[in-house]
Amino acid sequence: MTKFFRKIEKYMTKFYTHVTNILDEKKKEIIKIISNDKKINRKYYE
């Protein structure tokens, strides 16, 4: 039973790191989009 739980734990940590990496990428993209938008539409942000 403990082996089984260890496997699940291992899988979950891998999955979690994978998901956080994806979210980080998305965050970077969103930040890029926002900063580009600020550059283009500066007068709207001031």
Describe the 3D structure.
The chain has 46 residues and is mainly alpha-helical. The protein has one domain (2-45). 93% of the residues lie in helices and 0% in strands. The longest helix has 39 residues, at 2-40. The mean pLDDT is 87.
Uncertain regions spanning at least 5 consecutive residues: none
Query: How many discrete structural domains?
Result: 1
Outline type: rod-shaped
- Please estimate the helix content: over 70%
Number of helices: 2
List its salient traits.
single chain, 46 residues, mainly alpha, rod-shaped
In short:
The protein has 46 residues and is mostly helical. It has helices spanning 2-40, 42-45.
Write the layout of secondary structure elements.
Layout: H1 2-40, H2 42-45
